[in-house]
Every structure is written in C-alpha cells, then in structure tokens.
Amino acid sequence: MEQTVENMDTKDLFQEVYTQFKMHFYQAIFKNFESREATLTTVETFCMEVICALGRPTVKEFADFLGMSSPNAAYKVNNLVKKGYLRKVNSEVDRREYYLEVTEKYMNYYNVSTSYVDEVMDRVEKRMSVQEWANFKHTLEVILKELV
Questions:
Q1: SS3 category, 66
Q2: What are the residues facing 101 on neighbouring strands?
Q3: In tens digits, what is the pLDDT along the chain, a chain of 148 residues?
Q4: Measured between alpha carbons, how far is 70 from 96 in angstroms, rounded to an integer?
Q5: Residues in Cβ contact with 50 at an 8 Å cutoff, skipping those fewer than 6 apart
Q6: What is the rounded CA–CA span in Å between residue 43 and residue 96?
Q7: Which residue spans within the chain are E strands per DSSP?
C-alpha cells in the first residue's frame, strides 16, 4: 500500500520535503549537463554549496569545515577559480589570507535551485492564512536554531 501525504508522520513529511527539493535541484543541474561550459563535477558542486553557505570563508575555514587538508582544499579552490565559479579576494588585514567569493557565474548556476524554492514558498504562502504563515515561519526559525 502506497503511503499518502495525509498518512505520513511529521518526521517523514519533513524528510520527503527535503528529498523533493534535492531531487528538483539534481534534475535541474543534470538537465543541460553536457551543454554547459566548464561544468562543475559533483564534488565541486558540493564544495561550492559549502563555500556559498559559509559566506565568504577563508581557504582554511573551508578546509576545516569539511575536515580536509589545506593543500587539498587549495587544489579544489584553484580549480573552481579556473572554471570561473569562485574568486579569491585578498584580506585587507592579512595579505597572506584570501576570502573565497562566489561569482555571478556560480550564482546563475545556483539559482536553478533557489528560484524553485522561491516558487514553492510563494505557492505555500498563498495557501496559508496569515496566522498559519506566521506559525510556519516560527517553526522554520526553531528548526534553524536546532541545526546550528
């Protein structure tokens, strides 16, 4: 017997929402995979997602977050710079240190995912009352605090 949304418990529903967002992202990324210039590999895509989420990390912060060696992180960063998805910006305080910034080229690539999230959230908001939307926002805030 196939499980319907109405019969799923809250944890399963959340897992299914997360899975559906991932699946849409993967589908959108692979849709024109072969026609893209300098396409990101799977590992590079994950690296870029981490760098974007960390918000302008140093190479060391990026390496530490993923638990990889600094030389390995530097190698990955240099490949991403060569492909035009990332740039290294010299620190004003310590000229030996670089901050990693995503480029517009990556943001165009990444927006494949974020535009879908925006579209779904707009549809959800329209289906909810003002109070339901406020409760949903509060629930997301609680989840976010628990993740951090």
A1: helix
A2: 87
A3: 466 878 888 888 898 888 888 888 777 777 766 655 557 888 898 899 899 999 999 999 999 999 999 999 999 999 999 999 999 999 888 888 899 999 998 887 777 667 788 899 999 999 999 999 999 999 999 998 998 7
A4: 14
A5: 62, 65, 66
A6: 27
A7: 86-90, 98-102
Q: Could you give the 3-state DSSP secondary structure of residue 51? A: helix
The burial class, CB within 10 Å (0-12 / 13-18 / 19+), for 87 is: middle
CA 123, CA 16: separation in Å to the nearest integer?
18
Q: Which two tokens stand for residue 64?
A: 């530490």
DSSP letter (8 states) at residue 92 = S
Residue with tokens 């590999």: 41
Beta-bridge partners for 89: 99
Q: How far apart are CA 30 and CA 35, in angstroms?
A: 10
C-alpha distance from residue 43 to each of 28, 33, 40, 79, 93 (Å): 17, 15, 8, 11, 31
Positive or negative torsion for Cα 85, 88, 92, 94: positive
Q: Which of 62, 67, 117 is nearest to 88 (CA)?
A: 62
**Model pTM?**
0.72
Q: For residue 133, what are its two tokens?
A: 């939307």
